[in-house]
Amino acid sequence: GKGRVRPEWTLLFWTSLAVVVPVIITLWCSAQRSKRKTHMKDFFRKSKHGWHYTDLFNKPTYCCVCNQHILQGAFCDCCGVCADEQCLRRADRSLQCKEIMAPCSPDGAMEHRWVRGNVPLASYCAVCKQQCGTQPKLCDFRCVWCQTTVHDDCMDSLTDGDQCELGEFHNLIIPPHYLYRVNKLRRRQPEEYSKLASSCGSGWTPVLVLANTRSGNNMGKVLLGEFRTVLNPVQVFDLSELTPSKALQLCTLLPPGSVRVLVCGGDGTVGWVLDAIDTMKLKGQDQFMPRVTILPLGTGNDLSNTLGWGAGYAGEIPVEQVLRNILDAEVVKMDRWKVQVASKGLYFRKPKVLSMNNYFSVGPDALMALNFHAHREKTPSFFSSRIINKTVYFLYGTKDCLVQECKDLDKRIELELDGERVALPSLEGIIVCNIGYWGGGCRLWEGMGDEPCPPTRLDDGLLEVVGVFGSFHCAQIQVKLANPVRLGQAHTVRTLLKL
């Protein structure tokens, strides 16, 4: 009997060991990885480089310190320096990053700032015009400012007079010598900035990039790095770390009326930036107010679509083409509206005043938007792509079709357009539009009907008011199977809701 018990205990011991040991090793590795990650984060925060750690580089990459091929390591998204983990500290100490502020040479010229190796694919030598970066090793040079590439062997052929002129996008880049001179100014006045701007060439219209890393397809982080590579890193702002109001203070150090702002995000982010520009007006900084362009990363992007910047960006064109589009763009005016929300009878409560760029509504689509916003604020990590966002909208729309929370709205609401009462049919929702698109790319006012109607315009001082019969009707409008009820156009719209 004893002989049989011992093998059973031995088997149980080895089985437990086989289960417990891998678990302990996994937990230890996880703890070490977490510790390493925290250590790396701390190191990256203190560094002058814009380091990003990666487990796998997407193209053949070589360490700028030891010249060896690397798969796992870090790269700086400002200057393009790459290093494996062992060489990271040496790279940080010995290799200089892009300087956001620096003096130029006495003759006013700016020298190239070369980084060796890992040149972009399909880049060509400025001297011999042959392709660079074709050898399987750390080779060839790239200027971090003008993006010029040169072979190792052609470096000696560059003439002394060959200075950096900031390349194709010199009209959009804030040169480091401009900020250096601004910093030295005793009197910081607009006229002084305009004088300094003459050294940056005619047609200089610097661009500031403001990206919301939480918008739509979560492409913001990648785009921030790509823009830092091409522009001065001081021009690129992450809105998860800095508010638009603080980012736009850079406009007050640049010539009045010269600045453009590229907003990378959804319509909500654009509205946030436009509100920050309104704040500049309240501070008496009217002359420094920038012009706004959009790179649509959001879910709906109706404002971007209306202004001709597209219905949604998914990386289909490189950032260089985005910057070319900004250079070619023309300025258009757009109406912005104040929406005043007041409770009847509560005379001592101050009315709430909101800004409107796109549209506002009372009814099922407003309820869907509110539910979506509340859900996203609660679990932001879940909303990582446009597909998920649109699915959530669809689910809330389906739920409202069944519940019909806004039923008989026409009996509880009064509508006045320019002071005249409008008789309402049996509606569940009213939508007031400033722009041509609504609900993620639907032409709400023009619709698909044959009856003639006045056209919508961004700058005509008029709002378009339509009605919908419910969530199902909203869905039919979006797939062009139905039209909304056109209630009219007006300069002022007043709605009275009886609760």
Automatic annotation (TrEMBL):
Gene3D superfamilies: 2.60.200.40, 3.30.60.20, Probable inorganic polyphosphate/atp-NAD kinase, domain 1 (3.40.50.10330). GO terms for molecular function: ATP binding; ATP-dependent diacylglycerol kinase activity; zinc ion binding. One of its GO terms (cellular component) is cytoplasm. Pfam families: C1_1, DAGK_acc, DAGK_cat. Residues 202-343 form the DAGKc domain. InterPro entries: ATP-NAD_kinase_N, C1-like_sf, DGK, Diacylglycerol_kin_accessory, Diacylglycerol_kinase_cat_dom, NAD/diacylglycerol_kinase_sf, PKC_DAG/PE. It is a single-pass membrane protein. Pathway: Glycerolipid metabolism; Lipid metabolism; glycerolipid metabolism. The chain crosses the membrane at residues 12-31. Residues 48-97, 111-164 form the Phorbol-ester/DAG-type domain. Belongs to the eukaryotic diacylglycerol kinase family. This is Diacylglycerol kinase. CDD domains: C1_DGKepsilon_typeIII_rpt1, C1_DGKepsilon_typeIII_rpt2. Keywords: ATP-binding, Cytoplasm, Kinase, Lipid metabolism, Membrane, Metal-binding, Nucleotide-binding, Repeat, Transferase, Transmembrane, Transmembrane helix, Zinc, Zinc-finger. It is found in: Cytoplasm; Membrane. Its EC number is 2.7.1.107. Membrane-bound diacylglycerol kinase that converts diacylglycerol/DAG into phosphatidic acid/phosphatidate/PA and regulates the respective levels of these two bioactive lipids. Thereby, acts as a central switch between the signaling pathways activated by these second messengers with different cellular targets and opposite effects in numerous biological processes. Also plays an important role in the biosynthesis of complex lipids. It catalyses: 1-hexadecanoyl-2-(5Z,8Z,11Z,14Z-eicosatetraenoyl)-sn-glycerol + ATP = 1-hexadecanoyl-2-(5Z,8Z,11Z,14Z-eicosatetraenoyl)-sn-glycero-3-phosphate + ADP + H(+); 1,2-di-(9Z-octadecenoyl)-sn-glycerol + ATP = 1,2-di-(9Z-octadecenoyl)-sn-glycero-3-phosphate + ADP + H(+); 1,2-di-(5Z,8Z,11Z,14Z)-eicosatetraenoyl-sn-glycerol + ATP = 1,2-di-(5Z,8Z,11Z,14Z)-eicosatetraenoyl-sn-glycero-3-phosphate + ADP + H(+); a 1,2-diacyl-sn-glycerol + ATP = a 1,2-diacyl-sn-glycero-3-phosphate + ADP + H(+). The gene is dgke. GO terms for biological process: glycerophospholipid biosynthetic process; phospholipase C-activating G protein-coupled receptor signaling pathway. It comes from the Eukaryota.
